[in-house]
Design goal:
The chain is 63% helix and 0% strand. It has one domain. The longest helix is centred in the middle third of the chain and has 31 residues. It is mainly α.
C-alpha cells in the first residue's frame, strides 16, 4: 500500500512546493486564494470558452445545420448526474463525470456518421471537430483541477469521477437511435446541448465563480501562421486555411 501511494504523495509534495514558491506561502484552502490560482483560472476560462463556442454553434449566424437549442425531443434524454447550483467541489466532480460520458457519446456518434456517410458540409464538419477538441481540453483541465485541489486541500472530500462504462453508454446511444425521429445530427443536437450545460455547471461550481473569467484565444491559434507556412513550404502536400 505504501508503494502504491508514493507517487501521489510525491505529486502532492511537488504541488505544495510549487504553490509555496510561487506565492510566498502555502495556498491552503482559502476559497478566495484558490479561486485566483492559475489552475482554477484556467479551468474557468476553458469552461467559459467551451460554453460560448457551443452556444454559437447551437444557434445564431455560426449555427451548425441540424443543431438547435429548441429541438431536443427527437432522441430522448441522456442520463446524467444532477449538478445543483452552488454544489461546490462535488458539483465540479459531477460535471467532470458528465463531460467524460458526453464526450464518449459525441465521438461515437461522429464515427457512426462517418460510417453511414452522412452528408455534412466541410464548414460544419470543421466546427464539429473543433467542439471535440474544445470539450476534450475542458475535460482534461477539470480532471487536473480536481486532482490539484484534492492535493492542496487534503481535507476536502468529494466523490471523484470513475471510469465510464462504455458498454452501457453504447446501449444508451442505441436507445436514442430507436426513437422514431432520431438521426445522427439530432442525437448530436442533444449531446452538444448537454455538453454546453456541463461546461456551465463546471463554471458555476468553481470557487467564487461570479468573478470575471476572460474569454481568450487558445494557444493553438498562435501556431496557425507557422503551420500554414509549413504546409506551403513542406515536401508533403497539405492545406491549412
Amino acid at each position: 500500500m505504501q508503494l502504491v501511494s508514493l507517487p501521489l504523495v510525491l505529486v502532492c509534495m511537488h504541488l505544495y512546493f510549487v504553490v509555496a514558491v510561487g506565492s510566498g506561502e502555502a495556498l491552503g484552502c482559502n476559497e478566495t486564494s484558490f479561486a485566483n490560482h492559475a489552475v482554477a483560472q484556467r479551468t474557468g476560462t476553458d469552461a467559459l470558452n467551451a460554453l460560448v463556442i457551443a452556444g454559437k454553434y447551437l444557434g445564431g449566424k455560426q449555427k451548425i445545420a441540424g443543431l438547435s437549442p429548441d429541438k431536443l425531443n427527437e432522441c430522448g434524454n441522456i442520463s446524467l448526474i444532477d449538478t445543483p447550483p452552488d454544489s461546490g467541489l462535488q458539483g465540479t466532480a459531477n460535471a467532470s463525470s458528465n463531460l467524460n460520458k458526453l464526450l464518449y457519446m459525441y465521438r461515437s456518434v461522429l464515427r457512426n456518421m462517418a460510417l453511414s456517410e452522412t452528408v455534412i458540409s466541410k464548414a460544419d464538419s470543421s466546427k464539429l471537430e473543433l467542439l471535440e477538441i474544445v470539450f476534450t481540453r475542458l475535460s482534461n483541465q477539470v480532471e487536473w483541477y480536481l486532482q490539484f485541489r484534492r492535493c492542496v486541500c487534503n481535507h476536502t472530500q468529494c466523490t471523484l469521477p470513475e471510469g465510464i462504462d462504455k458498454y452501457r453508454i453504447q446501449q444508451e446511444i442505441q436507445m436514442m437511435y430507436m426513437q422514431p425521429n432520431c438521426t445522427h445530427m439530432r442525437s448530436l443536437n442533444v449531446i452538444v446541448h448537454d455538453l454546453r450545460n456541463a461546461a456551465n455547471n463546471t463554471l458555476t461550481s468553481l470557487p467564487d465563480w461570479t468573478m470575471a473569467y476572460s474569454i481568450r484565444p487558445y494557444q493553438l491559434c498562435h501556431t496557425l501562421k507557422a503551420l500554414r507556412s509549413h504546409c506551403e513550404t513542406g515536401s508533403r502536400n497539405c492545406t491549412a486555411k
